[in-house]
């Protein structure tokens, strides 16, 4: 059955609207609308909380355009000022202190410096512990500040390059005096 629309023409400008028997509501109504508003409200609350936490983290970590805290990003690399603690191994090409202060490396157990080849294998190691200093490598050398070799050691030989060698201690004294007298000192 077709719906007929009737228009009445009268004098004046008032028009009557036709009666519609079939009215369709377009949109979301009822509980669906309330759930949608609640969902949008929850998203807005989460957005505000995330923004506040981001601002708080930026403030606590001392973020700036140069870096974070004592850590500054420069054109030559990263500059770390003040005391810092590394919880995991530190891998760096170069570590330098400022020109007016020494570089201090402190550990409660030991400090180990490894040298690796291109395959990642350890080729040299220096370990400073609470009671020992150990060096592992093919060749060990100590030089003076002028570059002159003072001590050198490898698997085949040990070389002392100093002009004078002085050995001190009671056992050493007994060994040298017994050799002068022609006898051997057994230890």
TrEMBL record:
<dbReference type="Pfam" id="PF04790">
    <property type="entry name" value="Sarcoglycan_1"/>
</dbReference>
<dbReference type="InterPro" id="IPR039972">
    <property type="entry name" value="Sarcoglycan_gamma/delta/zeta"/>
</dbReference>
<keyword id="KW-0812">Transmembrane</keyword>
<feature type="transmembrane region" description="Helical">
    <location>
        <begin position="35"/>
        <end position="58"/>
    </location>
</feature>
<keyword id="KW-1133">Transmembrane helix</keyword>
<keyword id="KW-0325">Glycoprotein</keyword>
<keyword id="KW-0206">Cytoskeleton</keyword>
<keyword id="KW-0735">Signal-anchor</keyword>
<protein>
    <recommendedName>
        <fullName>Gamma-sarcoglycan</fullName>
    </recommendedName>
</protein>
<keyword id="KW-1015">Disulfide bond</keyword>
<dbReference type="InterPro" id="IPR006875">
    <property type="entry name" value="Sarcoglycan"/>
</dbReference>
<dbReference type="GO" id="GO:0060047">
    <property type="term" value="P:heart contraction"/>
</dbReference>
<dbReference type="GO" id="GO:0048738">
    <property type="term" value="P:cardiac muscle tissue development"/>
</dbReference>
<dbReference type="GO" id="GO:0042383">
    <property type="term" value="C:sarcolemma"/>
</dbReference>
<keyword id="KW-0472">Membrane</keyword>
<comment type="function">
    <text>Component of the sarcoglycan complex, a subcomplex of the dystrophin-glycoprotein complex which forms a link between the F-actin cytoskeleton and the extracellular matrix.</text>
</comment>
<dbReference type="GO" id="GO:0005856">
    <property type="term" value="C:cytoskeleton"/>
</dbReference>
<keyword id="KW-0963">Cytoplasm</keyword>
<comment type="similarity">
    <text>Belongs to the sarcoglycan beta/delta/gamma/zeta family.</text>
</comment>
<keyword id="KW-1003">Cell membrane</keyword>
<dbReference type="GO" id="GO:0016012">
    <property type="term" value="C:sarcoglycan complex"/>
</dbReference>
